[in-house]
Amino acid sequence: MKRISLEALLHTHRNDTYEQQYQYILALISEGRIKPLKASGTNGKHPALYYEYWQIEQKKDYSSFEEELKYQLHPMISIDYYLTHLKNYEQDRQWIIRLSEYLKNSREKLDYTESANERSFEIWSHEKFLSRGQGKRILKNCGLEEEFLNIYQTTEPMAYYSRTRQVPQNILILENKDTFYSIRRHLMEESSNKNVRRILGMEFETLIYGAGKGILRSFLDFDLCVEAYMKDEKNRIYYFGDLDYEGIGIYESLVQMVSGRWDILPFVRAYQAMLEKADKTCGMEKLPDTKEQQNRNIREEFFTHFPVEIVNKMKAVLESGKYIPQEILNIADF
After folding, report:
1. Tally of helices (H runs) and strands (E runs) in the chain
2. What's the confidence (pLDDT) of residue 192?
3. CA–CA gap between residue 205 and residue 187 (Å, rounded)
4. Other residues' Cβ atoms within 10 Å of the Cβ of residue 320
5. Separation between Cα atoms, residue 302 and residue 217, nearest integer Å
6. What parts of the chain have a pLDDT lower than 50?
Protein backbone atom coordinates (compact mmCIF):
# COMPACT_ATOMS: atom_id res chain seq x y z
CA MET A 1 0.00 0.00 0.00
CA LYS A 2 1.03 3.60 -0.53
CA ARG A 3 -0.36 6.84 0.89
CA ILE A 4 -2.40 9.17 -1.26
CA SER A 5 -4.08 12.47 -0.38
CA LEU A 6 -7.78 13.20 -0.70
CA GLU A 7 -6.88 16.01 -3.08
CA ALA A 8 -5.02 13.59 -5.37
CA LEU A 9 -7.91 11.11 -5.32
CA LEU A 10 -10.37 13.84 -6.31
CA HIS A 11 -8.10 15.32 -8.98
CA THR A 12 -10.31 14.11 -11.85
CA HIS A 13 -13.50 14.92 -9.89
CA ARG A 14 -12.65 18.42 -8.71
CA ASN A 15 -15.61 19.96 -10.61
CA ASP A 16 -18.13 17.58 -9.04
CA THR A 17 -20.36 18.61 -6.15
CA TYR A 18 -19.16 17.66 -2.70
CA GLU A 19 -21.90 15.04 -2.46
CA GLN A 20 -20.66 13.46 -5.71
CA GLN A 21 -17.07 13.54 -4.45
CA TYR A 22 -18.15 11.93 -1.20
CA GLN A 23 -19.98 9.13 -3.01
CA TYR A 24 -16.95 8.58 -5.25
CA ILE A 25 -14.65 8.14 -2.24
CA LEU A 26 -17.15 5.77 -0.57
CA ALA A 27 -17.26 3.71 -3.78
CA LEU A 28 -13.44 3.40 -3.81
CA ILE A 29 -13.51 2.27 -0.18
CA SER A 30 -16.26 -0.32 -0.78
CA GLU A 31 -14.37 -1.70 -3.80
CA GLY A 32 -11.33 -2.24 -1.60
CA ARG A 33 -9.20 0.16 -3.64
CA ILE A 34 -8.47 2.58 -0.78
CA LYS A 35 -8.56 2.53 3.02
CA PRO A 36 -8.86 5.65 5.24
CA LEU A 37 -5.75 6.74 7.13
CA LYS A 38 -7.55 7.83 10.28
CA ALA A 39 -4.47 9.50 11.80
CA SER A 40 -4.60 12.08 8.99
CA GLY A 41 -7.80 13.65 10.40
CA THR A 42 -10.97 14.71 8.59
CA ASN A 43 -11.72 17.71 6.43
CA GLY A 44 -14.36 19.14 8.80
CA LYS A 45 -17.19 18.93 6.26
CA HIS A 46 -20.44 17.01 6.60
CA PRO A 47 -20.30 14.18 5.83
CA ALA A 48 -16.59 14.17 6.59
CA LEU A 49 -13.76 12.65 4.53
CA TYR A 50 -10.24 11.87 5.71
CA TYR A 51 -7.34 13.90 4.37
CA GLU A 52 -5.27 10.80 3.45
CA TYR A 53 -5.86 7.18 2.43
CA TRP A 54 -3.95 3.98 1.86
CA GLN A 55 -4.05 3.05 -1.83
CA ILE A 56 -4.36 -0.75 -2.03
CA GLU A 57 -2.62 -2.55 -4.88
CA GLN A 58 -5.10 -4.53 -6.90
CA LYS A 59 -4.42 -8.21 -7.49
CA LYS A 60 -3.99 -8.98 -11.14
CA ASP A 61 -5.89 -11.81 -12.77
CA TYR A 62 -3.26 -14.28 -13.98
CA SER A 63 -5.67 -17.10 -14.80
CA SER A 64 -4.97 -16.89 -18.54
CA PHE A 65 -1.24 -17.29 -17.86
CA GLU A 66 -1.91 -20.35 -15.69
CA GLU A 67 -3.87 -21.92 -18.53
CA GLU A 68 -1.08 -21.12 -20.98
CA LEU A 69 1.58 -22.64 -18.74
CA LYS A 70 -0.41 -25.82 -18.14
CA TYR A 71 -1.69 -26.54 -21.61
CA GLN A 72 0.16 -24.60 -24.31
CA LEU A 73 3.90 -24.80 -23.65
CA HIS A 74 6.11 -27.60 -24.93
CA PRO A 75 6.21 -30.45 -22.36
CA MET A 76 10.02 -30.29 -22.09
CA ILE A 77 9.66 -26.90 -20.39
CA SER A 78 9.17 -27.25 -16.64
CA ILE A 79 6.34 -24.98 -15.45
CA ASP A 80 6.84 -25.45 -11.69
CA TYR A 81 8.72 -22.20 -11.13
CA TYR A 82 6.49 -19.96 -13.21
CA LEU A 83 3.24 -21.40 -11.81
CA THR A 84 4.30 -20.01 -8.44
CA HIS A 85 5.79 -16.81 -9.91
CA LEU A 86 3.17 -15.66 -12.39
CA LYS A 87 4.33 -12.05 -12.33
CA ASN A 88 7.79 -13.23 -13.44
CA TYR A 89 6.17 -15.32 -16.15
CA GLU A 90 4.42 -12.22 -17.45
CA GLN A 91 7.80 -10.47 -17.72
CA ASP A 92 9.59 -13.43 -19.33
CA ARG A 93 6.65 -14.70 -21.38
CA GLN A 94 7.81 -13.57 -24.84
CA TRP A 95 11.12 -15.44 -24.45
CA ILE A 96 9.52 -18.59 -23.08
CA ILE A 97 6.99 -18.63 -25.91
CA ARG A 98 9.84 -18.41 -28.43
CA LEU A 99 11.64 -21.29 -26.72
CA SER A 100 8.45 -23.34 -26.69
CA GLU A 101 7.78 -22.68 -30.37
CA TYR A 102 11.35 -23.65 -31.22
CA LEU A 103 10.97 -26.96 -29.38
CA LYS A 104 7.65 -27.62 -31.09
CA ASN A 105 8.77 -26.79 -34.62
CA SER A 106 12.59 -27.13 -34.74
CA ARG A 107 13.54 -29.63 -32.04
CA GLU A 108 15.62 -31.66 -34.53
CA LYS A 109 18.08 -28.76 -34.90
CA LEU A 110 19.38 -29.54 -31.40
CA ASP A 111 20.94 -32.69 -32.85
CA TYR A 112 23.60 -30.46 -34.40
CA THR A 113 26.14 -28.61 -32.27
CA GLU A 114 26.19 -24.84 -32.77
CA SER A 115 27.97 -21.94 -31.12
CA ALA A 116 26.13 -20.28 -28.24
CA ASN A 117 25.51 -17.12 -30.27
CA GLU A 118 24.22 -19.05 -33.28
CA ARG A 119 21.78 -21.08 -31.20
CA SER A 120 20.75 -17.99 -29.27
CA PHE A 121 19.76 -16.20 -32.47
CA GLU A 122 18.09 -19.34 -33.83
CA ILE A 123 15.77 -19.53 -30.80
CA TRP A 124 15.31 -15.93 -29.65
CA SER A 125 16.43 -13.84 -32.68
CA HIS A 126 19.07 -12.28 -30.41
CA GLU A 127 22.64 -13.57 -30.72
CA LYS A 128 23.75 -12.37 -27.27
CA PHE A 129 20.65 -13.55 -25.39
CA LEU A 130 22.48 -16.45 -23.76
CA SER A 131 25.84 -14.77 -23.14
CA ARG A 132 24.75 -11.29 -22.05
CA GLY A 133 20.99 -11.38 -21.72
CA GLN A 134 18.44 -13.22 -19.64
CA GLY A 135 18.87 -16.55 -21.40
CA LYS A 136 20.69 -18.47 -18.65
CA ARG A 137 18.19 -17.39 -16.01
CA ILE A 138 15.19 -18.28 -18.15
CA LEU A 139 16.64 -21.69 -19.05
CA LYS A 140 17.13 -22.41 -15.35
CA ASN A 141 13.58 -21.32 -14.54
CA CYS A 142 12.36 -23.66 -17.29
CA GLY A 143 14.30 -26.57 -15.79
CA LEU A 144 16.77 -26.76 -18.68
CA GLU A 145 20.58 -26.79 -18.67
CA GLU A 146 22.73 -25.02 -21.26
CA GLU A 147 23.99 -28.44 -22.35
CA PHE A 148 20.45 -29.22 -23.50
CA LEU A 149 20.89 -26.68 -26.29
CA ASN A 150 23.95 -28.59 -27.62
CA ILE A 151 26.16 -25.50 -27.83
CA TYR A 152 29.84 -24.68 -27.56
CA GLN A 153 31.61 -21.49 -26.47
CA THR A 154 33.89 -19.86 -29.01
CA THR A 155 37.31 -18.41 -28.21
CA GLU A 156 39.37 -15.71 -29.84
CA PRO A 157 41.71 -17.12 -32.51
CA MET A 158 45.17 -17.62 -31.03
CA ALA A 159 47.80 -15.20 -32.36
CA TYR A 160 51.28 -16.64 -32.67
CA TYR A 161 54.54 -16.25 -34.56
CA SER A 162 56.72 -19.22 -35.53
CA ARG A 163 60.19 -19.19 -37.00
CA THR A 164 60.26 -22.89 -37.83
CA ARG A 165 58.12 -26.02 -37.60
CA GLN A 166 60.90 -28.20 -36.27
CA VAL A 167 60.33 -30.21 -33.11
CA PRO A 168 61.13 -30.27 -30.33
CA GLN A 169 61.22 -26.51 -29.82
CA ASN A 170 60.80 -23.89 -27.12
CA ILE A 171 57.51 -21.97 -27.13
CA LEU A 172 57.01 -18.73 -25.19
CA ILE A 173 53.58 -17.46 -24.11
CA LEU A 174 53.50 -13.68 -23.53
CA GLU A 175 50.76 -12.05 -21.48
CA ASN A 176 50.70 -8.63 -23.14
CA LYS A 177 50.53 -7.39 -26.72
CA ASP A 178 53.38 -4.87 -26.58
CA THR A 179 55.85 -7.48 -25.35
CA PHE A 180 54.67 -9.97 -27.97
CA TYR A 181 55.29 -7.40 -30.74
CA SER A 182 58.68 -6.37 -29.34
CA ILE A 183 60.01 -9.89 -28.96
CA ARG A 184 58.65 -10.90 -32.35
CA ARG A 185 60.42 -7.91 -33.89
CA HIS A 186 63.60 -8.84 -32.01
CA LEU A 187 63.50 -12.41 -33.33
CA MET A 188 62.85 -11.24 -36.88
CA GLU A 189 65.79 -8.81 -36.73
CA GLU A 190 68.08 -11.42 -35.17
CA SER A 191 66.96 -13.90 -37.78
CA SER A 192 67.89 -11.62 -40.67
CA ASN A 193 71.28 -10.69 -39.21
CA LYS A 194 72.76 -13.68 -37.44
CA ASN A 195 70.30 -16.52 -37.92
CA VAL A 196 69.93 -16.86 -34.16
CA ARG A 197 66.74 -16.93 -32.15
CA ARG A 198 67.63 -16.00 -28.60
CA ILE A 199 65.62 -14.08 -26.04
CA LEU A 200 67.67 -13.15 -22.99
CA GLY A 201 70.12 -15.85 -24.03
CA MET A 202 67.54 -18.59 -24.51
CA GLU A 203 66.41 -19.99 -27.89
CA PHE A 204 62.74 -19.82 -28.87
CA GLU A 205 61.08 -20.82 -32.14
CA THR A 206 57.46 -19.80 -31.43
CA LEU A 207 55.79 -16.92 -29.60
CA ILE A 208 52.13 -17.03 -28.50
CA TYR A 209 50.18 -13.89 -27.61
CA GLY A 210 48.29 -14.75 -24.44
CA ALA A 211 45.97 -11.70 -24.27
CA GLY A 212 45.90 -11.78 -20.49
CA LYS A 213 43.34 -14.28 -19.22
CA GLY A 214 42.39 -14.94 -22.84
CA ILE A 215 45.08 -17.62 -22.98
CA LEU A 216 42.94 -19.77 -20.69
CA ARG A 217 40.09 -19.77 -23.19
CA SER A 218 42.47 -20.23 -26.12
CA PHE A 219 44.02 -23.35 -24.61
CA LEU A 220 40.57 -24.95 -24.41
CA ASP A 221 40.72 -25.05 -28.22
CA PHE A 222 44.49 -25.37 -28.51
CA ASP A 223 44.27 -28.49 -30.69
CA LEU A 224 42.03 -26.64 -33.16
CA CYS A 225 43.88 -23.32 -33.12
CA VAL A 226 47.44 -24.32 -33.96
CA GLU A 227 49.44 -26.45 -36.36
CA ALA A 228 50.49 -30.00 -35.52
CA TYR A 229 54.13 -29.19 -34.71
CA MET A 230 53.08 -26.87 -31.86
CA LYS A 231 51.16 -29.70 -30.17
CA ASP A 232 54.16 -32.02 -30.06
CA GLU A 233 54.56 -33.19 -26.47
CA LYS A 234 58.35 -32.94 -26.73
CA ASN A 235 58.14 -29.14 -26.98
CA ARG A 236 58.91 -27.03 -23.92
CA ILE A 237 56.44 -24.26 -23.13
CA TYR A 238 57.34 -21.18 -21.09
CA TYR A 239 55.21 -18.34 -19.74
CA PHE A 240 56.14 -14.69 -19.22
CA GLY A 241 53.73 -12.09 -17.85
CA ASP A 242 53.45 -9.18 -15.47
CA LEU A 243 54.98 -9.63 -12.04
CA ASP A 244 51.71 -9.14 -10.18
CA TYR A 245 49.02 -11.30 -8.59
CA GLU A 246 46.97 -11.48 -11.77
CA GLY A 247 49.90 -12.47 -13.99
CA ILE A 248 50.97 -15.18 -11.55
CA GLY A 249 47.35 -16.32 -11.24
CA ILE A 250 47.06 -16.70 -15.01
CA TYR A 251 50.20 -18.84 -15.06
CA GLU A 252 48.98 -21.07 -12.23
CA SER A 253 45.53 -21.50 -13.81
CA LEU A 254 47.12 -22.41 -17.13
CA VAL A 255 49.41 -24.98 -15.52
CA GLN A 256 46.43 -26.56 -13.79
CA MET A 257 44.41 -26.61 -17.01
CA VAL A 258 47.03 -28.48 -19.09
CA SER A 259 48.32 -30.70 -16.30
CA GLY A 260 49.12 -34.18 -17.55
CA ARG A 261 49.78 -33.08 -21.11
CA TRP A 262 52.28 -30.23 -20.98
CA ASP A 263 54.59 -28.79 -18.37
CA ILE A 264 54.55 -25.00 -18.58
CA LEU A 265 57.41 -23.21 -16.87
CA PRO A 266 57.87 -19.55 -16.00
CA PHE A 267 60.55 -17.87 -18.14
CA VAL A 268 62.84 -17.33 -15.17
CA ARG A 269 65.42 -15.18 -17.00
CA ALA A 270 62.75 -12.69 -18.06
CA TYR A 271 61.38 -12.23 -14.53
CA GLN A 272 64.92 -11.86 -13.23
CA ALA A 273 65.62 -9.21 -15.90
CA MET A 274 62.48 -7.32 -14.83
CA LEU A 275 63.64 -7.20 -11.22
CA GLU A 276 67.15 -6.13 -12.16
CA LYS A 277 65.93 -3.34 -14.42
CA ALA A 278 63.45 -2.12 -11.80
CA ASP A 279 66.31 -1.88 -9.27
CA LYS A 280 68.50 0.08 -11.68
CA THR A 281 65.93 2.45 -13.19
CA CYS A 282 63.19 3.32 -10.72
CA GLY A 283 63.49 1.45 -7.44
CA MET A 284 60.65 -0.07 -5.43
CA GLU A 285 59.07 3.26 -4.46
CA LYS A 286 58.43 4.33 -8.07
CA LEU A 287 56.84 1.09 -9.23
CA PRO A 288 53.10 1.31 -10.06
CA ASP A 289 50.55 0.32 -7.42
CA THR A 290 48.74 -3.00 -7.68
CA LYS A 291 45.15 -2.64 -8.87
CA GLU A 292 42.72 -3.04 -5.98
CA GLN A 293 40.38 -5.48 -7.75
CA GLN A 294 43.07 -8.09 -8.38
CA ASN A 295 42.51 -11.56 -6.93
CA ARG A 296 45.45 -12.07 -4.57
CA ASN A 297 44.83 -15.75 -3.89
CA ILE A 298 47.86 -17.31 -5.55
CA ARG A 299 49.57 -20.56 -4.70
CA GLU A 300 53.29 -21.16 -4.25
CA GLU A 301 53.65 -23.14 -7.49
CA PHE A 302 54.99 -20.20 -9.48
CA PHE A 303 57.73 -19.45 -6.96
CA THR A 304 59.05 -23.03 -6.82
CA HIS A 305 60.85 -22.46 -10.14
CA PHE A 306 63.04 -19.59 -8.86
CA PRO A 307 66.09 -19.33 -6.60
CA VAL A 308 65.27 -18.26 -3.04
CA GLU A 309 66.81 -14.79 -3.39
CA ILE A 310 64.68 -14.08 -6.48
CA VAL A 311 61.54 -15.34 -4.72
CA ASN A 312 62.22 -12.99 -1.81
CA LYS A 313 62.57 -10.03 -4.17
CA MET A 314 59.37 -10.89 -6.04
CA LYS A 315 57.38 -11.31 -2.85
CA ALA A 316 58.76 -8.02 -1.53
CA VAL A 317 57.35 -6.26 -4.61
CA LEU A 318 53.93 -7.90 -4.23
CA GLU A 319 53.67 -7.43 -0.48
CA SER A 320 54.52 -3.73 -0.81
CA GLY A 321 51.42 -3.26 -2.97
CA LYS A 322 53.47 -2.73 -6.14
CA TYR A 323 53.91 -4.63 -9.39
CA ILE A 324 56.27 -4.75 -12.36
CA PRO A 325 54.66 -4.76 -15.81
CA GLN A 326 56.47 -6.86 -18.39
CA GLU A 327 56.62 -3.71 -20.53
CA ILE A 328 59.50 -2.60 -18.30
CA LEU A 329 61.57 -4.65 -20.79
CA ASN A 330 61.75 -3.45 -24.38
CA ILE A 331 63.42 -4.59 -27.56
CA ALA A 332 66.79 -3.28 -26.40
CA ASP A 333 66.70 -5.64 -23.41
CA PHE A 334 66.11 -8.89 -25.27
Report:
1. 13, 12
2. 59
3. 9
4. 13
5. 20
6. none
Among 263, 273, 245, 269, CA closest to 171: 263
pLDDT digits (tens, 9 = 90+) for 55-83: 988 778 888 999 999 999 999 999 999 99
What's this model's pTM, rounded to 2 decimal places?
0.62
Burial class, 15, CB count within 10 angstroms (exposed 0-12 / middle 13-18 / buried 19+): exposed
Instruction: Measure the CA–CA gap between 187 and 294, rounded to whole angstroms.
Output: 33
* Contact between 257 and 216 (Cβ < 8 Å): yes
User: Of 182, 324, 173, 317, nearest to 242 (Cα)?
Assistant: 324
Residue burial 89-122, b: 16+ Cβ < 10 Å; e: rest: beebeebbebbbebbeeeeeebeeebebbebbbe
- Which residues have CB under 8 Å from 302's CB, separation 6+? 248, 251, 252, 266
- What share of the chain has pLDDT > 70, as a percent? 96
- Is the Cβ–Cβ distance between 149 and 110 less than 8 Å? yes
Write down the pLDDT at residue 232. Answer: 83
Give the C-alpha distances (Å, rounded to integers) separating 197 from 27, 181, 188: 91, 15, 8
Q: Are 323 and 287 in contact (CB under 8 A)?
A: yes
Q: Which of 21, 49, 51 is nearest to 39 (CA)?
A: 51
- Segments of 9-143 assigned E as strands: 34-36, 52-55, 114-115
Collapsing DSSP to helix, strand or coil, 23 comes out as helix
* Nearest of 139, 141, 162, 163 to residue 149 by alpha carbon: 139
